[in-house]
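C-alpha cells
===========
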Amino acid sequence: MAIRRQAAIALLAAVLLAACSGTGSPPRKARLYAFGTRVTITAYGLDGPGFDDAVADARRHLETWHGRWHPDRGDGIARLNRRLAAGEAATVPRDLRPLLSRAARLEHRSGGHFNAGLGALVRLWGFDEATDLPSRPPPAGDVTDLVHKHPSLSALSPGDGRLEAGHTAVRIDLGGFAKGVAAGRLRTLFRDAGADAVLVSAGGDIATAGTPGDRPWRIGIRSPRGEGLIARVTLRAGESIFTSGDYERFFEYDGQRYHHIIDPATGRPARGVRSVTVIADDPGLADAAATALFVAGPGDWVTTARRLGIAAAMLIDGRGGVHLTDAMAKRIELQGDPAPDVVERVTP
C-alpha cells in the first residue's frame, strides 16, 4: 500500500501576461494576505496618498471579512455554526444575511452542485485547514451518514434573520465563493478611490475594473498538470476569471488523488474533471460557478452553466480533453505543442 502526502502547490489558475498602461504612470501594486492566499491589487492612475489610503482600507476590510466569514473562528459564521451544531436556533447578523441568502440562491440555481452548507463534509475530509493535509480518506460510513442528512443551505432561512433549530448536519463554509465576493468588493473600493483601472488577483483568480489605457487584460491559464500555460484569454473591462482545480489542495492515497472539491451528492471529491475556468462580470458568481461546473462534471456542466447564466467556460476532463462553450472558444487561444484536443464545443 503506497501512501503519499502532498501539500497544495500554489499553481496560479490565471496569471497576468501583459497589460500596458496608457496613462503615463506605472501601476501601483499592493500585496496582502487573506482567506489562506495572497491577494495582489494592481491599480492604474491612483498615486500617492490616495493609493496608500485605499490599501489601508483594503487591509482592514480583508481582516474583517476573514474574521466574520471564517467557519471556525470569530463571532460571525463561526458563531452560527456553533449554534447549528448544538441543534439551536440562531439570529443571523445583518451583515451576513445578504451573503447567506446569495449562497442559498446559488445552490438552487446550480442544481445543488454549489453548496455552502457542506462544511461538515469538508472538515471530515480534512480540507478545512490551510496547513496540514490528511494522509487517507475518512471512513466511508461516516461520509455516508453525513450525505444522508442532506446538509444544505436550503434547509435554512437566512432572509428573515433566523436559522431554525435542528439542522445539526449543516456547517456553513463560504470557501466556494468568498474569494470572489471579496475580490469584487476590493475592485470597487479602488475604483471609488479614483483608480482608472484595477486588477485584483486572489490566489491567481482575477477580478478587473476598467482597462489599462487602450489595452485589454491579457491573462494566461495555467495547465492543471505540470508547468506552463494551457491557454491565453483576453478580458474586457469589468470581467473576472476564476478557476477551480483538483491540484489546488489534495493528497494521494493508494494511487488515487483526493482533492478538496466535494460533490454534495456523494460526499466525496468530485470525479472526471481536472479544472474548470469561468469568465463572468460578477466575480462572486464566477467563483461559485467554477466550483459548480467542476462538481457537475462533463455530463452536466452545460446544463449547470445555463442555469447559472454562464456563457464563457472551459472544462478540462480527467483525461486532459478540453470542453469549451462557444463564447469561450471565440476568445481563447489554446497553448502547447501540440495544443490540447478540443473534444466538445457547446452553447449553454
